Amino acid sequence: MPDLLIELRSEEIPARMQRKAAGDLKKLVTDALVEAGLSYEGAREYWTPRRMTLDIRGLNARSADIREERKGPRTDANEKAIEGFLRAAGLSSISDAHVHSDPKKGEFYVAHIVKPGRAAEDIIAEVMPGIIRDFPWPKSMRSGAASARPGSLRWVRPLQSIVCTFGAETEETRTIPFEVDGVVAGNVTYGHRFHAPEAITVRRFADYAEKLERAMVVLDAERRKQMINADAHNIAFANGLELVEDEGLLEEVAGLVEWPRVLMGSFDEAFLDVPSEIIRLTIKTNQKCFVTREPGANTLSNKFILVANIEASDGGKEIIHGNGKVVRARLSDAAHFWRRDQGDLPDLETLTASAEKFGLDLEKPLDQRMAKLDALNVTFHARLGTQGERVARLRALAAALAKVTGADPALVDRAAVLAKADLRTEAVGEFPELQGIMGHKYAALQGEDAAVANAIEDHYKPQGPSDRVPTDPVAVTVALADKLDTLVGFWAIDEKPTGSKDPYALRRAALGVIRLVLEGKARLSMLPFFNIALAGLKAQRPGLGGDVADLLAFFHDRLKVYLRDLGARYDLIDAVLTPDADDLLMIARRVEALTAFITAEEGKDLLAGTKRATQILAAEEKKGTEVAAAVDEKLFNLDAERTLHASIKLASDDAREAIVKEDFRSAMEALARLREPVDVFFNDVLVNDEDAAIRANRLALLGLIRTATGEVADFSKIAG
């Protein structure tokens, strides 16, 4: 079966767009071919900075014929109905139709329509121009003389050539010549921009990839990454160093080169006085270079690793020199930021009011930056006030949380006041990724308690499912305050996540709270702190009319996802989760205990009996059958009724006592004692007795079972 090769070659595609764009090309082309009636054995996409390539193997040479029957009117229908049928079916005469008989409907016309298949080349030539014209680039541009015309091609960078060849391995390939804005598809591509700029004629993928390799283009992005990573590790090792891994940078650099060549440069050791985080980000952001360190060391070395796109005749000396020159200039700027942030601000006299408001010491540089943040009225959000107002809210909320977390109130207050101060430092202004990290360093330099310095950095954590969770009570307290204020604030102004859109990362904030609570084993009722946060916001914004009524439901949804990822069954989570449950740790513990219980034999037996009781009761309630308000022991006729009633009372008391002690396993074991009396009851007792009073009393007894087990979980929601 034939293979299809497509290459779209352009000027340099931004590295961040390449992987997704190549995936989009694969999906768009294969979907279009399948929709047109073609099938294929496999498809794989490739990309370099200057090209996207698609290799489709085992594509049908022709789409299948399509046969269908179209039912028409009765043979005795009027002329207009028959004419309409002929037009719709594409028939020239009624004699071309077939007559079918039906015992009920009589005789009617049927058109047997055959749509012949089409050659794959015709289908490809038809679908490709539209795919290219409508390609979903995040950003695109017009270029060349054709760009002056309305409707001209928009592409991420100027499109230069298209390769489209088709054919079986045992025969010569054919070019499929479609055209897009003057660019005609052919069988010619080009290699490395500098080393091999000559035209290359290709046939199918195997010789295409081989010829590109000879023309100094490594087509496979994953292979380029492996080459860069291996060479970087080797050159670092050869110099007695180790590479500081950076997967994001590796992905980006692999998208910047077609022929990767790894080199090592250096900068003055004097710059090592600057924090390693600043050095790494300076070199990464400005020059896309990797940093190194002594094996096992926490600080960096003065050697960096760069990736060139050419085989330099001088062994890379000029490239190393040029990169080193730029790195030194950027590190000089970074060192300047570092020193400036440790000095006094020039306008301290204007910061007195803000210093008094937050209890700041204007002798200390970080305190000055916090005062400046407040004095400038830097906006946090147009409807949620300034950063200064937000810090005031964090301070109050953190003070309330400290009573629950057991953190030192004075340290919590100091950490909350300084948590956002580094937003006014020059280092964070240049590298926003360093917020919190620089605050930690500057706090340590001015002699803050270690718990305060750590909390300034860690209050942003965790920022995802794999990020580290703070454990120090001060950091946990400020981190909870930060996330709860964010969630309550955006809920209050009705800026909630919708579908896949979450511009303020509120799902991540809720997950952060969940991980802080569950992984830190924090006992925290959420609703009171929602109300404290909302009250603080409304005190600053009296006209704010929002509420957070459904914020707890949002937390429940996030908690379900978190627990399911840990392996909990969805039905057991639903069985435990009630609409007003706001103690996340207790919910998790209940799910854990229920999971262990329900998988044991006693749990399975109790579940069966309990579900039978609740289903009978629910069915009768739905029918409107009378259920007694309370159980009347005088109406008991059988021992099974009396035994079950006494057992329910005893099990309920024991379970309730265990729940108060938060011993959910013991509570379930107490309820498990109902298994035998429930089984005996259903064997010996007819619930739907002819006597209405007895029936109502027995249904009330089933209601006691539902109530007793419901204190632990809603067993009706458990599968099985």
Which regions are unreliable across 5 or more consecutive residues at pLDDT < 50? Answer: none
- Could you say which structural class the secondary elements and strand pairing correspond to? alpha+beta
> Main beta sheet, described?
7 strands, mixed
Count of helical stretches: 26
Keywords: Aminoacyl-tRNA synthetase, ATP-binding, Cytoplasm, Ligase, Nucleotide-binding, Protein biosynthesis
Catalytic activity: tRNA(Gly) + glycine + ATP = glycyl-tRNA(Gly) + AMP + diphosphate
Enzyme class: ligase
GO molecular function, one term: glycine-tRNA ligase activity
SSE map:
Layout: E1 3-10, H1 15-35, E2 42-48, E3 51-57, E4 66-74, H2 79-89, E5 98-102, E6 106-115, H3 120-133, E7 159-167, E8 174-175, E9 179-180, E10 183-186, E11 188-190, E12 199-201, H4 205-214, H5 221-238, E13 242-243, H6 247-254, E14 261-266, H7 276-287, E15 290-293, E16 300-308, H8 317-341, H9 352-358, H10 365-375, E17 379-381, E18 385-386, H11 387-405, H12 409-418, H13 426-430, H14 437-445, H15 450-458, H16 473-492, H17 506-519, H18 526-540, H19 551-565, H20 570-576, H21 584-598, H22 601-623, H23 639-660, H24 664-672, H25 675-684, H26 692-710
Parallel strand pairs: 7-10
Antiparallel strand pairs: 1-3, 1-7, 2-3, 4-6, 5-6, 7-8, 9-10, 11-12, 13-15, 14-16, 15-16, 17-18
